[in-house]
Every structure is written in C-alpha cells, then in structure tokens.
Model the fold of this input.
Amino acid sequence: MFRKRHPALPTPSVGSPAEGAVVAVWRPEYSPHDAPDGWTPIGEGAHRAVILNPARTTVHKIETEAGRNRREHCTLRGLRRQGYAYAPPTTLWTKPCPGRDVNVLAMPYLPNDGTTPTNACPRAGVVDLNPENITVCHGRYWLIDASGP
Ligand SMILES: Nc1ncnc2c1ncn2[C@@H]1O[C@H](COP(=O)(O)OP(=O)(O)O)[C@@H](O)[C@H]1O
Ligand SMILES: [Mg+2]
Done:
C-alpha cells in the first residue's frame, strides 16, 4: 500500500462533449488549413497532434497510435490522486466511430510562458525524457506528456 504524499487533487472535467466531437474527426495528417473553424494546431510529438480550441483554453490530443491518450489520462489522474500538482487534469472524450472509437484527450492549455517555477520539477510519471514534455506556465512546472516513451 502506497502512502499519499499529499491530499488528492480534484479532477474537474476538461473540455466538453461538443468540442471532443468536433476534433475527433480531425486528423493530424491534414494540413493546418484543414483545422476546424477557430481551432489552431499547436504541437506535434511522435504519437499525437495537439490542437487548441477557439477559446484558447484547452488543448486536445489526437493520437496516431491507439491507447496513448487513455494511458496518459490514467497516469495523470493517478498522479493527481497522489497529490502531484504538476499533473494537469485531463478528460478522455470518446466518439463512437465505425470500425473503432476515437479517444481524444482534453487538457488545459499550458504553454511555456517565461514565468519562474515555484514548485519542484516533475519526476514521478516522467518516462519520456524529452524536455518538451514539461512546461512552465503560470509559475509552475507541468507534465504535459505522460503517455510513455
Ligand atoms: N497542455 C499543453 N499546452 C500547450 N502545449 C502542449 C500541451 N500538450 C502538448 N503540447 C504541445 O504539443 C507537443 C506534442 O504533445 P505531446 O503530448 O508531447 O505529444 P507526443 O505524445 O506525441 O509526444 C508538446 O511537445 C507541446 O509542444
Ligand atoms: Mg511528447
């Protein structure tokens, strides 16, 4: 049995079913000009493309390898339950599609903003050491990619 480091953190819902449904039909291999109206593609890694919603508050990750988004959601939710504040809240939105369901992961938009972090750099849950997977935003470190190597 693990001891909790800190009290569990809340896991609010991120994004909405409507926004999840809009981006679930967008594919990373499309040109940026094909993004849904008002949405902005902002990042790409080895396994996901990341697109920002029109309000510029929430990113959605579109996976190119099934299971990545669910894995990240479970890891970050587990870290929050253990009280790790650098784990952003996430919501997995599932759109039933012919052949296979599409899982889109919603997460707050946490760009590097040049602020100085006041919390400790993430360690637990960090398995892919690419520095782009950790940001500093609003004076805090955040682990924004926890889907595995
Ligand atoms: N929450 C976020 N806020 C701002 N940018 C993000 C966020 N999540 C991802 N990104 C950007 O998108 C890139 C790819 O996302 P990431 O989750 O690392 O995908 P992959 O699993 O393919 O590596 C990141 O390196 C980062 O630049
Ligand atoms: Mg990454």
